[in-house]
Design a protein that fits this description.
Length: 380
């Protein structure tokens, strides 16, 4: 045990109100920095590491922490906190994970099974494919044939790579080798794939003619995929188990399908709503008229009221995109774009001048909100 009796909270750099997770996070960070193996030229590293472990063993145990908060370092016997920590290997387990991840195994002073099971054969890698759909297909859903380049185990040799094989002498058929390392905390055993058989456990004597000894074949795999209604551009679909085959019978990876939604020539998507720009000339906007606008279900009539101003919006309720995480559909917002004449004849000019002479202020009043205020309200 360390001779120093500094405050345990100070040693770990946490407050007295720190949660158990905060205590653990701080200990892992400091233990990595002060572990003797990480500081071979610093003779004081071992003492600092012991001090950190002692503090963590107390503060990571609820009963020991309550006793320490009450009595400090002078914990009376029988209080439940007389010895640091309640789990003699809690801090050691955490520091092993901090250095070696969760795949290590401990032996010697800790027992062969300490630290969890060894790693098995590698799972297959994920694969990807791309599909493009139009806006209507994104709205209502569609089924598509998807082709993906996939690495599969050879069906002739069943992934072994050969017709004749023998047991790998390096790993004894286990497919993995262990490296034993002595530390101040005892022996630690790390495990990795066997370099000779590459994790297969057997050595190929006569290579397979089909896969030329690799055990793998690259194939184009076709499958029917259902694209759900309401999907958005850039989303991905996951098909579980449809990726590349794994090693030695381990499960395959997944297939991720990247979705591209083509732009519609007349409808722009805004979340669950669609926006259509409807062009009318200034006479139609003044006198009023009826137009037909495109929707996902076909054309729909829209009435332009007399005196409609530029930027005015007409809503078609429930004609937009379906809600993925809800019920119903969004709207189509029809934005009125009033076109002004750019070239006029002498007769047209004369008629417009006459109209201006007989018009007063009341002719133009009642326009309501400004153009920019109306346009701002269109987008979410």
């Amino acid at each position: 045990m360390a001779n120093s009796k500094r405050d345990y909270y100070e040693i770990l750099g946490v407050s007295r109100e720190a949660t158990a997770q905060e205590v653990k996070k701080s200990y892992r960070r400091l233990a990595r920095d002060h572990h003797p193996d990480a500081n071979p030229d610093d003779p004081s590293a071992e003492e600092r590491f012991k001090e950190l472990t002692e503090a963590y063993e107390v503060l990571s145990n609820a009963e020991a922490r309550r006793a320490y908060d009450t009595y400090g370092h002078q914990v009376p016997r029988g209080s439940g906190g007389g010895q640091p920590g309640g789990d003699p290997f809690g801090g050691v387990q955490d520091i092993f994970e901090a250095f070696f991840g969760d795949g290590f195994r401990g032996s010697s002073m800790f027992g062969e099974g300490f630290g969890g099971a060894s790693r098995g054969p590698a799972r297959g890698r994920n694969s990807e494919a791309d599909i493009e759909i139009d806006l209507a297909e994104a709205a209502f859903g569609v089924e598509r044939e998807v082709n993906s380049q996939t690495i599969k185990n050879c069906s002739v040799c069943e992934g072994s790579g050969g017709k004749e094989t023998h047991l790998c002498h390096t790993c004894g058929g286990a497919g993995a080798v262990r490296t034993v390392r002595d530390t101040m905390l005892g022996q630690m055993v790390s495990q990795s794939a066997c370099p000779d058989c590459r994790g297969a456990g057997r050595i190929v004597d006569v290579p397979c003619d089909e896969c030329r000894g690799s055990g793998k074949l690259s194939k184009i795999v076709s499958r029917r995929v259902a694209v759900p209604a309401g999907i958005e551009d850039g989303m991905r679909l996951r098909v579980s188990g449809a990726g590349h085959d794994g090693e030695s019978g381990s499960p395959p990876g997944d297939l991720y399908i990247n979705l591209k939604v083509k732009e519609h020539p007349e409808l722009m998507r805004d979340g669950e709503d669609l926006i259509h720009r409807m062009k009318v000339n200034f006479v139609q906007a003044t006198l009023g008229t009826e137009f037909r606008v495109p929707t996902l279900d076909g054309d729909s009539p829209v009435m332009v009221e007399p005196g409609t101003q530029p930027g005015a919006t007409v809503r078609l309720r429930g004609e937009g995109m379906p809600r993925i995480r809800g019920r119903g559909r969004g709207d189509i917002k029809v934005v009125v774009d009033v076109m002004m004449p750019t070239r006029i004849t002498a007769e047209q000019r004369e008629l417009l001048e006459k109209f201006e002479q007989i018009s007063g202020e009341e002719t133009y009043n009642g326009g309501g909100a400004s153009f920019f205020e109306r346009l701002r309200g269109v987008f979410r």
